[in-house]
Amino acid sequence: MITLTDVVKKFGNTTAVDGVSFEVKEGENIVLLGTSGCGKTTTLRMINRLTEVTSGKIKVAGRNIHEIAPEQLRRNIGYVLQHNGLFPHYTIAENIAIVPGLLKWPEEKITNRISGLLEQLHLPQNILSLYPQQLSGGQQQRVGLARALAADPPVLLMDEPFGALDAITRNNITKEFSRLEVLKNKTIVLVTHDIREAFELGDRILLMDKGKIVQQGKSIELLFQPKNQFVADFFSAQKMQLELHSVFLKDIFNYLENGNEQTNAPLIDENKSLWEAIEFLQLKNKNLLQVKDTASGGIKNFGYNSLFTGLEALKQHDHE
Amino acid sequence: MNDAPGLFDFMQNQSGKILDQLLQHIGLTFISLLIAVIIGLPLGILIARKRKLAAPILGFTGILQTIPSIALLGFMIPLLGIGAIPAIIALFLYALLPIVRNTYTGIINVNNSVIESAKGMGMTNNQILTKVELPLSMPVILAGIRTATVINVGVATLASYIGAGGLGEFIFGGIALNNTNMILAGAIPAALLAISFDFILSRLQKINLKKVRTALLLLPVCLVFLSSFYLLPEIYRSKMLAGFTPEFMGRNDGYPGLKKVYKLNIRTVVISDAIMYKAAFEKKLDVIDGYSTDGRLKAFKLQILTDDKHLFPPYYAAPVVREEVLKKYPGLEDALNQLAGRISDSVMTELNYRVDYLKQSPAKVAKDFLMEQSLYKNPLKENDGVIRIGSKIFGEQYILAEMYSMLIKGNTHLQVTTETGLGGTKICFDALRNNQIDMYPEYTGTGLLVILQTPDSIVARFNGDKEKIYDYVRQQFHNQYNLKWLKPIGFNNTYALMMRKEEARQLNIETISDLKNYLSKN
Q1: What is the ipTM of this complex?
Q2: By C-alpha distance, which of A184, A203, A314 is closest to A254?
Q3: Which listed residue, of A93, A190, B212, B483, carries a Cα 20 to 30 Å from A55's Cα?
């Protein structure tokens, strides 16, 4: 859906993006992760030509973007910014209707689309006649998302979309976001410096540093098979938490000890992460849970100890 | 406030004139504002787009703003003559800075993430300008237009100096004529005008952002409507055009006297005496009032029309001094009287010519004259008090003030300071009465009519006799104000009507009666 080939961007003498190439498949969510100044935002802005490339090639939906007028290109790519960028002099309805308006949709189609979007994004219908500054930060961000999705673009670019929100709101909205039906079939490129956000939302993560992609892959690959010291260091501060979030019970099923069958232990889904298993243990105030492996049909019991032993065994195995 | 009933009567009597002037004033203000908006808004947008141009353009409009308004109007005369066009252009230049600067500031201060998102959604540059930048910067732009409006209402009063009309006619006429009611009749409507426009625009600024688009359309319509006011009084016209100073327009021995004694009826504009002669020379005006000793008469080839019905009383110049000062410094009176009877009409005209036209400094002209008359002495050591000499704002008075200064320094041990350029009669006389200056040269006719406001019945009794008028004025000044008229200097600087020599000869006009007959025939 999106292909970047040897893309370079220079501002004067400094090279912001230094030969970046990657591909995003249709429906895939990728995250450009890195510290500020690593070139991730510049990379994103080159995709909708808010920044022009110095050299290299970018294709969206098979077409070279330099052959499309920037305005036309942008109307078919949703764009969400950190500071939502809502027009303060437009009502919520008018804000969401901007791109459909530019594309000259009929009035009725726009109205229907807006109310449908509000529902899917869990926003009340009565905000339509309000102005952005009358909404909370979280609501504003959702409206920003609704506006980006208004014309149903196949591609969505998001630049630190939750960066301006407080930690709690951000956590909730991130979780909700990953489950949103409207985003299911979208090709999304998201820029963030927040590792947890990246792990939660990205099918694939591209870790950038000094204008280059250092490593790309699934979150668990970056975590357990860091390509170099930079990647290892990048995740080290939150390593334990990240591991528990990104490893699932089915991944460690084979490493769990056998025996101690206890039929009265509560059953947990094998697709839950280790973090969720620990939460579940605490919630039920139990020492043991049981999990069923769909592949083999086997059932195993586990407690805190066996969980961590299993994780260690998995990591050992991955290293070899 | 014993002026209050008088003011009310005055305004009632002059209501037609006030309305005319008010409409002219509104017209001048808004025509220039309209042009300033039409040019300033795009200019502001341009420099917001091309930031490199911002500094030079804002700098240039800023410099325009610092030019004193009366000077700017003066610069316009050679280029554009007199009347509405130069006035409107000057006002336009003053209105430009606030409009350009606020448009620029408003646009560059629009939140960047809003602009980014507009771009990111695929809006074109024009759409971003009209749908995002202009609506969001509208309150700031309106604030600029508001500032420009208030500036223009104020500066438009000066338009009367170059014959463009407006409320300045009453204000400057009143100052020249020592007529408080007349000043207020111009100043109060002008102030109310500024306050009400400011208020209306402040409302406009506060209305809902949503309705800004309507306001944007409404504004030019209002501006055009208000601008059209200026054209209303322009309907009546006559063949010749007279330019009279604000003072002449109001004095009994000025235009009202001409109407009464000669039944003269001519289309008039009010104009400052500083530019009147030049305007007549350049055929922008046909008839002007002036002073018989003015040096520019010669320079601009003008001819005085004979006052065949003796409307203008004699105006013999003499120093008016505070009696207190004369008592305190006994040598002073003798020093000042050395000039008595020394300067004839033709000599004064020559001296004025050297200052007004040859641009020699009044001090040099004064010194040359005193040397020639063997009156000049080197300054003595200054160890006594200070004498403050005032003068009105024209060449002749500057020369006289310099002469008196030299005479005092040469003959007494007093120090001298000069307060030259104190505007018209009222300002000079008030300064003298309030002990801001000690003396200034005045003219008997002015003392009689402007300061003492002597009723017609008494004036008639003098029958234009210069001695009788001098005695009457000297007596009254002593009784009423404790001011002493010293001996007359000799020349008679009377009012006069003048025309270009050439035109007067062609039309065979020599006297004011001839002019009257010519006008009523054509």
Answers
A1: 0.81
A2: A314
A3: A190
